[in-house]
């Protein structure tokens, strides 16, 4: 197992998600980023419940790239506290894991 994982992130719109996704792939912090348009998010923020439309985007990466990925997302993101959650992949084909490891830093 290569310590591969999926990073879940949200953005306020497709343009911002696309800009961040492109930077992550170009800087080899993610092997692939998929953008899932229009999700509805309900959450607590600044003392109230918010109900917003957002864009979910997911990156395939390695644990070794995660800290640098976090810094890049925070640098480019408009949210003061963006969602950046790494979930380890429990099982995947060895070829897929090797690909993720090969194309990331």
How does this structure look, described?
The chain has 105 residues and is an alpha+beta fold. Helix content is 35%, strand content 40%. The chain contains three helices and four strands, in the order βαββαβα. It has helices at 14-26, 63-76, 94-103, and strands at residues 4-11, 32-45, 48-62, 84-88. It has a four-stranded antiparallel beta sheet. Strand 2 and strand 3 form a beta hairpin. Helix 1 packs across helix 2. The longest helix is centred in the middle third of the chain and has 14 residues, at 63-76. It is elongated, with a radius of gyration of 14 Å. The model has no long low-confidence stretch (mean pLDDT 96).
Can you give the mean pLDDT? 96
Distance between the termini: 17 Å
Unreliable residue runs: none
Please tally the helical runs, counting DSSP H or I stretches of 4 or more residues: 3
Structural class: alpha+beta
- Please tell me how large the radius of gyration is: 14 Å
Major β-sheet annotation: 4 strands, antiparallel
Number of strands: 4
How much β-strand is present in the residues?
35-45%
